[in-house]
Amino acid sequence: MANSRADTAMLQSKHRSWICCLFLVLQLTSLPVWAKPDSLKEVTDGNWEDILAGEWMIEFYAPWCPACQQLQSVWKEFADWGDDMGVNIAKVDVTEQPGLSGRFIITSLPTIYHCKDGVFRKYQGARTKDDFLSFVHEQKWKAVEPVSSWFGPSSFLMNSMSALFKLSMFIRRCHNYMTEQLGIPVWGSYVIFGLATLFSGLALGLLLVFIADFVFPSRRFSSPDYYQKKQTMEQARLIQHQEDEHEADGEEDDDEEEEYEDRDQDDVWRRRRGSPEGRPEPKGHGFSDEALRKRVVCSREEEEEDS
Question: Does pTM surpass 0.70?
Fold first, then answer.
């Protein structure tokens, strides 16, 4: 009996030990696996202002770009050295972040920027890990001319460009939705966007007119004596016009009187051009004025000699 009890106790203790081992194994397997955190950061339209503080190396890429695909493995290796150098290594997918594409004016892919305390410089060197490390560690970025403040990502101009890029991406998505999901033809989508642009422009123009009239109200028609002044000015213009016509008529009368006086003088001169005896010149024997004067002078001298 004693042996059987001892065996039973040993079996129970073995079962308990097996149960404890199984419980420990289950506990260990259920614990989360703590992997190494990813040192490659991702910048979006929502957190892009984080890059204005500290030192950053940022790659702008697109998944469909072959050159970007070749650079990804090198860029990840370079990102593993970021913590040791105190540099944040990041990437931006321009297909998912159109606002950042417009904010940095990305015209080629991949494009790499270096940022130090909000001052941006475009990387133009070779795309190897050693070149990236030397560019940061040896501070070769100091030899690169920084981006002007006018074209900085936080400037008003670049904020406007970012908004335009976001709007263009929104329009493109709407176009794809209407053509692919709703089955609207392409020309129908263009017509819809054209009408929407037209009516939005008219609405915006009308709104600007209301705002301008509210901010700078016109005092011309609101004045109580405006119409009285207008009537007085019209009467003054009418009187001035009548006076001008009267002066013009007076000048015409003066011209006619001068013409009459000239004609009278011509008649008197023609009468004086007669013969020395007072007879008119026969027709067809006209003399010049000089000859006529000589004849008059000679006739006077003859009369004086006779007297």
Answer: no
